[in-house]
Amino acid sequence: MFAAIPAVGVLFLAVGFLPAHTPQPYSFPDLRYFPVMPVNPGNPVTVEGAELGRYLFYDPILSRDSSFSCASCHKQEFAFSDGGKQFSTGIEGAAMSRNTPPLFNLAWYRNFFWDGSAASLEEQVFQPVSAHDEMNLDWEEAERRISSSAIYRKLFSRAFGEKKIDSVRIAMAIAQFERTLISHNSKYDQAIRGEAFFTKDEAEGFEIVNDQTRGDCLHCHTTDADPLGTTGNFSNNGLDEYDDPLGYKDAGRGKVNGKSEDFGKFRIPSLRNVALTGPYMHDGRFQTLEEVINFYSEGVHVTANVDSKMEFAYRGGAQLTVEEKRKAIAFLRTLTDENFVRNPEFGKPLTSRQSPPNPSGK
Predict the structure, then answer these.
(1) For domain 187-338, is the CATH number 1.10.760.10?
(2) Burial tier of 133 (Cβ tally within 10 Å: 0-12, 13-18, 19+)
(3) DSSP output for 259-297
(4) 20-182 homologous superfamily
(5) Claim: this prediction has a pTM higher than 0.85
(6) What residue segments make up the domains of the chain, in order of their start?
(7) Share of the chain residues as helix, strand and coil, in percent rounded to the nearest 5
(8) Which of 152, 176, 297, 343 could covalently link to 320 via disulfide, CB atoms 3.0 to 4.6 Å apart?
């Protein structure tokens, strides 16, 4: 016979064998017309991880004086760009050297920043937090602040178990949230799915953009073969006239890899939400879509390292008519995803779930 076990002992035995909370895989939307989404096996997206990342994305706790968050420069209503600013300003008030890119469909990108200096989303997170002209916070202090918050300890426990809160997991959580920022429901997407129809101008604009004898945009900005709006490669689009590759004021990709043939090349941005993400180009030199179209029509330079896919560079650009420009812009506006910029799942966490207290007391 077995000895009787006191009831309280049974309770402790049962509690001891209760399984720890298991993070739930995040359910992405139906993306049947998109390329297969790459997955980082070392940091799969979970509901709990993305929620934690959203809190961190909107929390100024990761800046030196606790006044500045990721969302300070990446605003949802502008497709997570900086809302009309040529250059964002960091906590010191100094202007940054490049235009702030929008954030969406990042899971498909092979590298990040205009020059591709980060090889993963996780790596990308590390740069703005510690950069002196951005958030300017030492990562050891970031870890201390997050670890001292009861709310964050709970959120980290749900996302990563009882593992130590450190900079790596902070970056992993923000990267998980950023991977959930999927833009897939513009009028363009609805037309692809047969749920909406282009107007005559929009349809003709689509043809102009993707016609190699007219707009000739398709080699870099994919809207015909897949809906990402970019190849994700690096290109020199003839913005400036330099005979010497080393003469570029901003070397772009060439500064990262040291290759002279990559001087003046920058990552090709997506055309998605392009009506919301101006100013345009790596230096924000163009304020409007009209200026961008005019450049590609008449302003392209034959310059050192100009992309061979800029087939009309020899004549200054595609030489579009006024009507062709108007229709091209009509199509570009169909790429605006109103659902994306209004989705509350991507917005600042609800005030009913209070953000962790400001560590600086401000």
Answers:
(1) yes
(2) middle
(3) -GGGTTBEEPPP-TTGGGS-SBTTTT-B-SHHHHHHIII
(4) Cytochrome c-like domain (1.10.760.10)
(5) yes
(6) 20-182, 187-338
(7) 40, 5, 55
(8) 297
Q: Residue 11 CA to chain centroid, in angstroms?
A: 49
pLDDT digits (tens, 9 = 90+) for 72-101: 999 999 999 999 999 999 998 989 999 999
Summary mean pLDDT of the chain? 91
Q: What 3 state SS string does 2-39 have?
A: CCCCCHHHHHHHHHHCCCCCCCCECCCCCCCCCCCCCC
pLDDT at 170: 98
- State how far the Cα of 303 lies from the Cα of 231, in Å rounded to an integer: 22
- Who contacts 219 (Cβ-Cβ below 8 Å, separation ≥6)? 231, 309
Element (DSSP H or E) covering residue 249: none
* Nearest C-alpha neighbor of 302 from the set 312, 287, 289: 312
For residue 136, what are its two tokens?
Answer: 């300017």
Q: Which phi and psi (to 5°) does residue 245 adopt?
A: -55, -30
Task: Measure CA of the first residue to CA of the last residue in the chain; give whole Å.
Answer: 66
- Residue 222: DSSP 8-state: -
pLDDT of residue 3: 39
Domains 20-182 and 187-338 share a fold: yes
